[in-house]
Structures are given as C-alpha cells and as structure tokens.
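TASK: fixed-backbone design
INPUT:
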C-alpha cells in the first residue's frame, strides 16, 4: 500500500481517542479529522450505514495513525463545520440580525442534508422562516414590511438578501418563504450588468440563481408592475359620508378626505418622477404589497376622519389579501411552493 502524503491534522477535530480518521481536501491541501464513530452514527444515519458495512479484509484496510481511514469527497471546510456541530451541542448559534444568513449557512445546510442530519436541517429551516413572513398575518404584523424610516417601494432594504434565501429554501425544501422572497427579489433592479458585479447593500446575488429562477423573478416583476399601476385605482374616496364635512364638524379651510386621498395619489404618481413614463414610475416604486399593507395598517393617512379611514382600511384589507394570495401565481411557483395562507 502506498504511503499517504502527510495531511494537516485539524487543530480541534483531531481527537486523540478517536477510532476513525477522515481525509478531506480543500484544493491541494488535505486535512485529517480523527473522530469517534459512535458520534458520527448518533447524528447521521448515512454515516451509521457506512460504518455498519462489513470489512472484507482488515489487513488490507487503509489506516492512518493506527486507526482506519476513509476519504470523503466533501470539502474539508464543510466537513469541519458539520463535525463542529456534532461535537458542540449548542452549536451553531444563528443570529436573527444576520442579513446574509442564507448564504453563510448554505454549505453547512447542504452537507447536513447529504448526511441526513435532520435536526440541523430543521434548525436552519426554522431560522430561515423566522426571517421571512410566511403568512398574511405575519406580513401585516411585521414592522419591517414598510419601516417608518424607509420610503414606499424600498421593501428590499428591509429584508435579508433574497437570492441566497431562494437558493437555500429551494435546495433545502423550505417552500413557505418563497412567495415573499421572490416578491422582494422582484423589487430590485433587474439587468444583466448587476449580475456580474459584487453584491452591495442594494444588489441581490443573482449568480446564485438558475436561469429559470431569474426568469421567474423577471416575469413576476412584469405582473407586479401591472399591480402597481392598478394600485392607483384604490386611492379613491367618496366625500358623501366624510365626517369632516358633516354639519358641526366642518372647519373653514379644511379639505374633505377624498381630496386628501387624491393628493396622496397624485404625490405617489408624480412626486420626484416628473418627466418619465407611467411604466417607468411603476418600476421605480415597485412595491404594491408593501404599499397596500401600510395603507391597511394606517388607513392610508392618519389625518382622515374615522369613517373614511375605516373605508380605506377595508378596501386595502381586500387588496393586500388578494396580492398575498396571488404571489404563487404571479411568480409561477410550483404547487408545493404555494403559500398556504388564506
């Protein structure tokens, strides 16, 4: 048997009492992990099955440091991350504020899925779902939907980076987040130039998505543009029942609520976008779901009278529900990926 090249022993995961050595590569470097087979078998049915295979010839078995040796095709970095979980009960600790969680955890999640480490896969899936609203109730309660410090149409700044979330959710089978993740992705600019440039605060990681997924996001964006234009039709209010105009309530110089709403509509359509087409404006402020959710929560604007605010809240309650339920169809998501919220 040919002698092994000297691998580098992992500083933390080369256990002196281990009864198995695993070799894994990162490029040209080889790392040796000395581990306990009972630990591997406890956490992974795949490892348990491998270790249960009968040994045909013990003398012919490859060994390192006097214990059996196996070689795995996984990268040393990914394998180290998995073994660290096996040997550290409280590991890993996921941060709720990590906007790049999906990209950071993806290699660990994939090797965990490969070796059927179900507890780790579930932990990753639950944390991913905690970062995205998966029901209409969560959407309406989520203060990130339209944070007070962000203008309408900038929902993409309030949520984690969506492309990596879509990649992780698709490959780990977490369909619940996909409608909202695709929606947020569609609010970003979409052109080929951004796909080849490094990610920054406002650019998604398009390179992580397959061509059909990019096409799904773009076609959904076109449908959302239509929804954005239709949103303007919701900004209508009859002044007939306006409390501000009722006898005894009228204040000279005050406007009826219908006029206030018309002013809001005009501002949404024209402010800061003079001289460009309606379609371009719709793309520039592409956030009909966020706008409808905020209008539902606030009754469009707090200065409306009670009766008019109630009317607008009812109108946008229907609108936001229609938009939410329509997301799977807008993005042509497979039935398994459709939102179950009604």
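OUTPUT:
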């Amino acid at each position: 048997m040919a002698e092994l090249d000297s691998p580098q022993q992992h500083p933390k995961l080369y256990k002196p009492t281990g009864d198995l050595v695993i070799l894994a590569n990162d490029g040209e470097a080889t790392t040796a992990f000395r581990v306990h087979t009972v630990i591997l078998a406890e956490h992974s049915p795949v490892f348990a099955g491998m270790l249960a295979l009968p040994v045909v010839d013990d003398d012919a078995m490859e060994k390192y440091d006097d214990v059996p040796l196996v070689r795995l095709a996984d990268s040393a970095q990914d394998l180290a991350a998995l073994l660290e979980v096996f040997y550290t009960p409280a590991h890993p600790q996921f941060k709720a504020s990590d906007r790049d969680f999906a990209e950071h955890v993806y290699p660990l999640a994939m090797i965990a899925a490969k070796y059927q480490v179900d507890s780790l896969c579930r932990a990753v899936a639950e944390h991913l779902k905690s970062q995205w609203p998966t029901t209409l109730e969560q959407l309406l309660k989520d203060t990130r939907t339209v944070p007070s410090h962000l203008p309408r149409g900038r929902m993409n700044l309030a949520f984690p980076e969506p492309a990596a979330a879509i990649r992780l959710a698709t490959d780990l089978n977490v369909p619940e987040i996909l409608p909202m993740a695709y929606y947020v992705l569609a609010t970003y600019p979409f052109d080929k130039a951004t796909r080849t440039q490094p990610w920054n605060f406002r650019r998604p990681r398009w390179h992580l998505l397959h061509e059909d997924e990019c096409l799904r996001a773009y076609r959904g964006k076109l449908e959302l543009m239509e929804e954005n234009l239709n949103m303007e039709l919701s900004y209508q209010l009859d002044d007939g029942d306006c409390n501000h105009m009722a006898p005894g309530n009228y204040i000279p110089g005050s406007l009826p609520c219908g006029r206030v709403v018309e002013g809001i509509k005009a501002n949404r359509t024209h402010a800061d976008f003079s001289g460009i087409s309606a379609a371009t404006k719709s793309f520039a402020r592409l956030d009909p779901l966020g706008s409808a959710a905020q209008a539902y929560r606030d009754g469009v604007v707090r200065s409306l009278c009670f009766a008019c605010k109630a009317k607008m809240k009812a109108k946008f309650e229907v609108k936001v529900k229609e938009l939410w339920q329509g997301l799977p169809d807008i993005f042509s998501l497979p039935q398994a990926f459709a939102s179950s919220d009604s």
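COMMENT: The longest strand covers residues 67-75.
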